[in-house]
Input
Amino acid sequence: MDKLYFDYNATTPVAPRVFEAIKPYLTDQWGNPGSAHDWGLSAKSAVSKGRAQVAALINAEPENIIFTSCATESNNLALTSPFAQGGKGRIITQPTEHPAVLEPCVRLQEQGVEVTYLPVDGNGVADLSTLSELLGALLPGNSDAPGEAGLLSLMRANNETGVLQPVRAAAAQARDAGWLVHTDAAQAVAKIPIDVQELGVDYLTIAGHKLYAPKGIGALYVRPGAPLYPLFLGGGQERGLQPGTENVAYIAGLGEACAMAAEDLAMEVARITDLREYFIRGLHNMGADFVVHGAAAERLPGTCSVGSRARQPGIFFPVWWPTMWLPRAARPATRARPVFRPCWNPWVRRRPMRPGPSGFLSAAPRARPRWMRCCSVCIWCWNCIAGSLGQFSGGSLTISTASAGQTM
Output
């Protein structure tokens, strides 16, 4: 039986085309890009090419792309830089962010930065009217210490529900109020069109392994003039912001993955959206009693979070957990029988949010929002609809298709 991989929001396989772009820098062209001889110059050329390919996908200038080891590092770099000089300041984010944003906010809060959590509506979309109130109340110029930094961090796409946040509108409000803006676009780049000029953000996070590049490579877009300070010190690589010899092979791979995505992104968005709707129709045809989280919101084409309306504690949710991705061209004419394994993720109660000095929720939220609590069973992100439909009995799960832009 052919196994199918359904976990694309967690990670993607390295595309063959990306692998071919990587190989020369692991074998024949192994020079250090900081060296002035032929081997070094060849490696430096590969880094420059990769930087240009990443920049082209998001409509940025190559010099505004900083390579990192992962999206988590990119997020930490963006979140800590405005407060790196020891001054206090303010951050506005939302409780549905990835831990790579929420945990740095907890650390910054311990260091004196005021962190406020923007509420989301029933679909998981940030409340922009509340954002307007927050920006007015927390405007750095209105504080007792004028000049304090203000940073809004809003993810572009949720990794569990696929819900897209109104980053462009939120960024416009924040920039008008003199705030910097960061968006974690790890789940969005190469899945939907991303244009940093249109979004109006100062920082944008990219994860290589979400778009068919290897694990261990990421990038951060930084708007000219936005503050940026290194997390650690060393050599002068990446303008001194990511010291250490560049990972030439993986940079070449990330660049190739971005170039690959740019070639057929619109076509893949349409194809994968059709697959998502096919899956939902299949559940309806089965007579399943379910709810789609964020159904009324704009979502990623290939992510669908589905929960059972049955509130029966202790139910095991049968899920597909295939372990190997099957290229589109190699899919069998007949549907493969899904592999079912029970998953159990008990609800862990964590400390609630509490009102902060400004009257808004300021303590770090550790629990999932109420709108996502469908029952006692919670299956974290696993992704893809390849055509097989299985049983549906009480629980909650997230699925997503292969990322848009892949050409395997």
Remarks:
- Confidence is low (pLDDT under 50) at residues 141-146, 312-396, 404-408.
- Residues 58 and 195 are 5 Å apart (CA to CA).
- The first helix runs from residue 16 to 22.
